[in-house]
Design goal:
Layout (H helix, E strand, L loop, with lengths): L3 E3 L9 H10 L4 E4 L32 H11 L4 E4 L11 H8 L5 E2 L2 H4 L6 E3 L1
Parallel strand pairs: 1-2, 2-3
Antiparallel strand pairs: 3-5, 4-5
Length: about 130
């Protein structure tokens, strides 16, 4: 069984390299982060994916670029894989993943959504 650790709610992004090293030492298979270019200042509608209807991530949470973050964390680790919990493909360069694969060989796999729903996240950097 492969265990992944989500870092979506980590607001202290300067701690990500230390967390990545620790996750690797503890035997995690990979790390996941989210992808957002912007967040609204206020959300009035009910969030459908939580029991209380509130977004579980604070609105002032930083959202570093996933590809830059993956490359940075890969430089601090040896075998961790990286994935985006959410990947906004329409807002990204379609070749970003391929460039990451060239820079950090053998740590990237892009899976189609139907494959991802049964195994790992849709965009997985290894």
């Amino acid at each position: 069984m492969k265990f992944w650790l989500s870092l979506v709610t980590v607001r202290e992004i300067e701690q990500l390299p230390t967390l990545a090293k620790l996750a690797e030492q503890l035997g995690f298979h990979g790390l996941m982060i989210g992808d957002h270019l912007a967040m609204p200042a206020k959300i009035e509608s009910r969030y459908p994916y939580s029991p209380d209807g509130k977004l579980f991530v604070p609105l002032d949470t930083p959202w570093p670029d996933p590809w830059i973050t993956f490359a940075h964390l890969a430089a601090h680790t040896q075998k961790l894989e990286f994935a985006s919990n959410i990947y906004l493909a329409a807002l990204r360069d379609p070749f970003a993943g391929r460039r990451f694969d060239l820079a950090v060989p053998r740590r990237l796999v892009i899976r189609r959504a139907h494959e991802a729903s049964h195994s790992a996240p849709a965009a997985v950097a290894r």
